Structures are given as structure tokens and as C-alpha cells.
Batch of 2 targets.
Target 1
Amino acid sequence: MSRDQLRKAKSDIVALTNRLDRLKPASGHEHSDVRQFMIRQELRRVGPVVVLGDSITEAAPLPKAICGHTVVNAGIGGADANFAAKTISALLNGTSPALIVLALGTNDAHPVPEGR
């Protein structure tokens, strides 16, 4: 490749990168951050049944109540056992669930890339 071709390729990459940056959401938030906020709002209820899980749980049509306790769907897409271990105590801080159900594992079933 000539120097002119390299310069043009570099210029094209910079232009494309700038275009892609404009497509990113302006808010800069992650889905899991929004889900955790929403879950914390639901956990204000007294004595709920909390179902912690991944995207399967998040999308599950859970009942509104179990044995008279409101059900809080605390599913977060992409959650795995490591994510849950890091976030459960902060998520449940200051709440008194009647029951906690863990519905995790699907995202732990794939091989983890090296360096992660």
C-alpha cells in the first residue's frame, strides 16, 4: 500500500468512527443500570418475593403475587453468577424480602474468553 492509500484509509477510519460515535445513545447509560434502578423502586414494597436472574427471568411472565406477597422481577439481561454476587447485596440493601429466588446460570454456561 502506498502512503497516499494509507493516509486515505486512516482518514476513512476516522470519519467512520466519528459517524459511529454520533449513533451512540446520548444518555450514556447501560441497560443493567436502568434495570437496577427500576428493581430498587419495586423493592420498596414490604416483604416481596424477589426473583433474581438473567434475561430469561427479566422477560418471564411472573405472577403478580405468590402466597400474598408481591413478586418483584429482578431479572437483568446478561447477568451471570459473578454479576449477581457483585450486585445482590447492594440491590437488596435496606429491603426485607419474604423470599429470594435465584434463577441464574444460563450466562455461565458458555466458555469465558481469556483475560476476563
Note: Strands lie at 49-53, 65-66, 69-75, 99-103.
Target 2
Amino acid sequence: MGNYNGDPQHIVTPLEGIQKAFAQSTISYAKGCNVIDTPNYNPKKDFEAALSTAAKAEVIIFVGGISPRLEGEDLKVKVPGFLGGDKTDLNLPTVQTALLKELKKLGKPIVLVLLNGSALAINWEEENLDAIVETWYGGERGGEALADVLTGKYNPAGRLPVTFYRSINDIPTFDDYSMVGKTYRYVNKPVLYPFGYGLSYTNFNYSNLRLSTNKLDKNNTLKVSLTLINTGTYDGDEVVQLYIKQEGEGMPIKELKGFKRVHVKKGEKREVSFELKVSDIQHYNAKIDDLATVSGKVQLMIGPSSAKVALLGSFDLK
């Protein structure tokens, strides 16, 4: 349920949602393990039950992640990975990865479903599992939403609002208020999943970038247009993202300046457009203690995430 939530009369769990959606199939369940490993917990029996159940299955759906009882504000928690509601690393709790490694040995397809409120460094999982579904804390009907995605009733189009780093060591400590190395705007190391990243059951092609002018000043507006084609076999939504980059000391590596979620049927194409004004491209100026325009060349990048550029252009900012 996450934090700051009410108490619904009934919560549709992932298990209930899957059982309902796959009513014609045999759904077998085993606990697997606790969310975290603690000194008083021996996961052997839980592992054995999970492996026995999974050995008879065609597909394994592993619902894991963390918990609002571990991550939150001012919690009285001190366990490996968590301290007072803060995280001391980004990994999936070790007991969960240990069970996933045992399940992997069975040779079955594995779908990892994550329930969490913050980014995780799931490096082994990314390399070894067949699918990963990020559900965050789904709320009272999250199990239904998950089942809709797993069955293909709904073609997902969510995009990450945060960066998933590879390691806690890739992020400067948060008692350092400099933004260097933090967020997609300043990170200069390879990441696991970039800001704006997300997959669906179809594919899209970007083409035909057009700019209404190559000079933007306070007297005009820049219109940016492109063609988007659904090249896959399913109808779906694409989240088209527009980023810019300006050269100069202290400037971000890139900045999101617009995004549009567009529904495109399979085989069809849509025209997508953005508008930029001078007031959209300003940065803090310490000398005047306010936002100001920095004149010069601006690089324009359009794609499906902050890390993937499908179309590239530029214009002059006055």
C-alpha cells in the first residue's frame, strides 16, 4: 500500500489478481521467503517449498521487492540495507536474490514482479531473468493491474520517474548538496535503467524531425515535429521525450523539456509536436539571483528515454 494510505476493505494482491486472470490455468503458490533476512530467520523450509512448487510449473512469477515498513520516514528499523527508514544500499534483499538464483537452476522462465517505492540495483536479476515488471506499491487493486499486464490485456507504457543506478557507490552521499553525479541531469556513470525508461509489447520508429526555425528568441516560438510509427504487432502508447543540452560551466548533461504520451495502433503513424519558448530554457544565475537565458547553440534530443536518442537536432538561442 505504500505510505500515507487509507485502509481499504479489501486489497487485491498479486496472487488474487493472477488467479482471477488465469482462471483456466493451475496457479500454485508458495511463500518463498521473508522480505529480508534477519538473524532469527532460517529460509531453508521456505526455499524448499518454493522450489518444489516451482519445479512443477511452466512459468515462475516471483513477487518481491521491499516494503513501506522498511523504507519511509523516521522508522525504527535497523537491519541490513535499511536504517531508520533510509536505505544503506540499493540491492534487492539478499535472501530474495538467493532464492531467485536457486529458482533459476530449474530452467523455467522467471518473471520478477517488484513492489517498492524507490530504485533498486537489480543487476543480477536484469542479466538472468526473463522479464521484470516494476509495479511500485500498486494500491488496493494493484493485483488486477499486474494481471492485465501479464496477460497482455493492457500494453504497459509506464516510464521511470527516477534513475535506477547500478550501485550505491555510483551516487554521491546525500550530505553533499552538490548535484554532480546525481539524477539523469548530472549522472556521468553507466546506469542500470535511465530516467524515462520503459518497455511495452510493441516497438516504435522515430523519423522526419522538423524544426520551424533554427533560431529561438523572445519574439518567436520553436515548433518541433516528428513522425512516430508503431512497427510492432500490438496497439500501444509511446512516451515521446524531448531533451536539450547547452554547453557551459555547470550546465546539466541534459534536461527534459517536454514529453507526450501518444497512442498508436499497430502499423499506423502519428505526427507528434512540441513547442519551446525562451522562457522554457532558463537557468539560475547567481549574479542576479534569478533565472536567466544563456545564449548559444542548443542541442535537441528526442527519444523513448533520457539515454536513447532517436532524433537529433539543434538551434540557436538568443
Note: Residues 61 and 297 are 49 Å apart (CA to CA).
